[in-house]
Structures are given as structure tokens and as C-alpha cells.
Amino acid sequence: MAWIDVASAEEVTEGEVRGVKARDHLVALYRIDGRVYATSNVCTHENALLSEGAVEKGEVECPLHLTRFRISDGTCLGPYGTDLACYRAREVGARVQVQIADEESR
Amino acid sequence: MFLKTFWYAAAWSNEIEHSLFARTICNEPMILYRTQAGNVVCMEDRCCHRRLPLHMGRLIGDSVQCHYHGLIFEPQGRCVKVPGQELIPPSAQLRTFAAAERHGLVWVFLGPKDLADEAKIPDYHWITDSNWGAKGTHFNVKANYMLIVENLLDLTHLAFVHASTIGNAAVVESAAVQFKRGPDSVDVVRRMTNCAPPPTYVKAGGFTGNIDRWQYINFMPPGFVRLETGGRDAGKEADPSAKNITLRNLNIITPESETSSHYFWAQCHDFDVKNQALTDMLFDDVNAAFRQDVDVFEAQQQSIAGRPDAPEVDVHGDIGGLHARRIIRELIERQLAGG
To answer: Do the chains contact at B322 and A52, CB–CB below 8 Å?
Structure first.
């Protein structure tokens, strides 16, 4: 497992979602109550990018069909799709890093 | 099912004269005409006696006479004469619609007249504002109005349908796009930096190098889509002397039936506004492009009619159009619930 530098801490703000790439993984970053979270940026329904969606009350909403996912653990709250992959995320100084399994493929 | 408590554009003002003009709006056949004093009258295009369309009749002064048995209706819709009898049935009354003129268009309100608030006519002032050059037209399109709305909310099609006029590959591949849904509106912002100007922009703006390009798209129900588009010498956002142009493409889409629409639109420009040749050139280019769109809408509608239950897949460009569909669906649900 490797920690990959993906963004500056100030780019990840409350109430927003930021899409980044970690190696070949499409990752969405969030900040909730000060803490940084990371999930897959790809909706499990039709592969829309969640970074074009909306964040509210700890949930991210897909821009296309409004499926919602709990950001803290990726739980799919419907109406479409399945649970979302999550990544461990941390802040190191002014940077945000996410942990990617070496052999894992997207 | 159509939204009833909205203003719809029925005609360009200059289409309505002191003569009977027939147009169907949201499945309601209507006649429109101007009284001798110049006020616009709008009433159902159906005699309340034996239902002949009234547009086959004639005007007598400011009243309408049916072609069939000669009943005469005054502008408020009340029957004032039944030839051959003295008394008039009290229920001999045509439905009339509230009408207003604004922004060079005649608007009619489909709901009860006491709800017809002219302040709710959307802002299209650029069409008649002397600070802008403008030219518009009307298409009768054999396609549902939402196909037109969705087309305007997803401009990635410019690169494919309109490569010869207002589009190029930069429009789809290098645009930064933001979507914003309001309670009853959708905004799409598309920005393309340092891209080649499309042919129309070169002709209108005289650009010689790359430009930064923007497209702001605003949708309001039922069928109002207002675009601001423009370009500026690339990288010169802060330079007031940089070459730049702003255009307004204004679309007012009125359903005729579930499978046909009245598509009113105008192209406006904020530079060299008295130059009629420029106004004509911009209009002609967009007109050529929009006729390409009409071919697409009508082919879509035929394809849909052939198999209405065929599935559709949504892609990223559809975010704005899907928001618009949801707004319409919610408003229809509210209307059905009596709200």
C-alpha cells in the first residue's frame, strides 16, 4: 500500500467534492467537519463522475440520476447503484494523500 | 401533459394584424388578432355552436363571425348575434386567454386569467433593446419541446452537428463545465480557454489567434433557454482593449402538441449593433445551424414514435437536461395535485 499525494489541503473544502487522479484511480475528495475523506469518483450506476455532483449532510449525490452515497463509508443510499469504494485519506502538512493498494486495479 | 399556469410565446408581434391568425399552443387551438385599436385578442379557435374552427371565419369590426352559421363573438368571447333568432343562449361564450406583448413577442397565458401576472413573462429584453442588434424567426418543429430544451442544455453537439458553423472540437473536448440547479432553473456554464475560434466568430469578431470562449446557458420552465456566448483574445481577461464579442442566443419554445413545437428564437449581438449586414450574417449562420438541429429533433421524434419504450443512456453532457426534465416533472406533479 502506498500513500499518493493528490491535492493541496486548501483545495479540499467543506461542502464540495474535488476529483483527482491517484495513479490510474479516479478519486473524489471531501472535507467533513474538518476531516478529509476519499471515495471512488465513479458512480457505481452509470460511471458518472461524482465530482460534478453535490455534497450535503455527509453524502455525495451523483449529478446524473441523483443516487446518493454516504461519504464516510461509501454506502449506497439509492435509488440506483451499489456501494462505493473508499480510500484512506490523510493530511500531511499542507497536502492531501490517499492510500492505494499496489496491485489494486480500478 | 402541459404546464397550465405559464405564459407561452404565441407569435412574433409582427405576425399579428387585424386579421384572424390561427395557432395551436399546448393542444389548445387559438385564434389571435389585433383590434382596430391595436390590442391583441386571443380566444379558442372553435365555435361553441358546431365547433368549426373560427379562423375560417372573418372579422367584422373587432368581432369574429363564424364561417358556418354566422354567429358573431365580441373580443371578450361573448356571442352577440345568432342569425335568424333574437335571443342568444347564455352559454354561448368562447374561452378567451390573457394576452400580452413584450420583447417583440405576443404571449398568452394558458391558466385562469386572474393568475395571469405579466411580471412573470421571462426577460428577453435583448430582442428589442436598442443597445443590441437582433434578428429572430419561428420554426414549426415536428418534435416535442423538451428535445429542443435538451439540445440547448448540452452544447457538446456543436462539435458534431455544427462543425461547419458555430462548433469545433474544442467545444466538447476542452470545456470546463459547471451545472447549477435552482428551484425552478438550471444554469450550465461552459468555459473553453485558448481554443481556435469557430468560423462564425472569426467572421464576426475578426479574431486572428486563439480565444477564450464562454457559454452561459439558463433554462426556466416550460421552454425558456437563454444563452450568453462569447469570445475574447486568449489570456486577455484583464485587458479591456482585448478583442471580444458577446452574443445572446434567445430561445422561446412553445409546445404545439406532444410531438410538435413552436420554436421562436433570436440572435443578438452587443457590438456594431447598427450594422444590419452583421446582424444578418450572425442570424444566417445560427439559422443554418438551427436548421441542422431541427433535422435532428424531427428524426429523434420519429425514432421515439417508432419505439417509445426503447431505453436511453445518460452521459455527462445530459446533467443540465436531466435537471430540466426533473423540474418539468415536479411542476406537472404539483399541477396534478392541484397546487
So the answer is: no
Q: What is the ipTM of this complex?
A: 0.80
Asked whether residue B138 falls in the same domain as residue B281, the answer is yes
State pLDDT tens for residues A30-62.
999 999 999 999 999 999 999 999 999 999 999
Contacts of B86 (CB under 8 A, 6+ apart): none
Q: How many domains does chain A have?
A: 1
Q: Where are the beta strands (DSSP E) in A9-81?
A: 18-22, 25-32, 35-40, 54-56, 59-61, 68-70
CA dihedral B99, B100, B101, B102 (to 10 degrees): -130
> Grid cell 434578428 — which residue?
B135
- The reported pLDDT for the residue numbered A103 is 62
Question: What is the residue range of B16's domain?
Answer: 7-120
Domain residue limits at A71 = 2-100
CA A40 to chain CA centroid, Å, is: 5
Q: Which amino acid is at A93?
A: G
CB-based contact A49 B322, cutoff 8 Å: no
In this structure, the answer to whether residues B83 and B178 fall within a common structural domain is: no
For residue A23, give the nearest of A84, A78, A105, A88 by alpha carbon.
A105
CB B204 within 8 A of CB B282: yes
**Which residues in chain B touch residue A41, judged by CB atoms under 8 angstroms apart?**
none
Considering its fold, how many domains does chain B have in total? Answer: 2
Any idea what the CATH number is for the domain that residue A43 is in?
2.102.10.10
pLDDT at B200: 85
Please report residues of A whose CB lies closer than 8 A to that of B322: 64-65
User: Among A75, A73, A76, A28, which Cα is nearest to A65's?
Assistant: A76
| The predicted structure's pLDDT at residue A106 | 46
**DSSP secondary-structure letter at B141?**
E
C-alpha of B64 from chain center: 28
* Among the partner residues B313, B314, B319, nearest to A52 by beta-carbon distance: B319
Domain-terminating residue out of B62, B94, B120: B120
Distance CA B213, CA A66 (A): 30
Same domain, B279 and B183: yes
- Cβ proximity of B149 and B263 under 8 Å: no
- Pairwise CA distance, residues B112 & B110, whole Å: 7
Whichever domain contains B73, its CATH number is 2.102.10.10
Q: Is residue B169 part of a domain?
A: yes
Q: Is residue A81 situated within a structural domain?
A: yes
In terms of residues, how long is chain B?
Answer: 339
Residues of chain A in contact with residue B316, where contact means CB-CB under 8 angstroms, are: 48-49, 52, 63-64
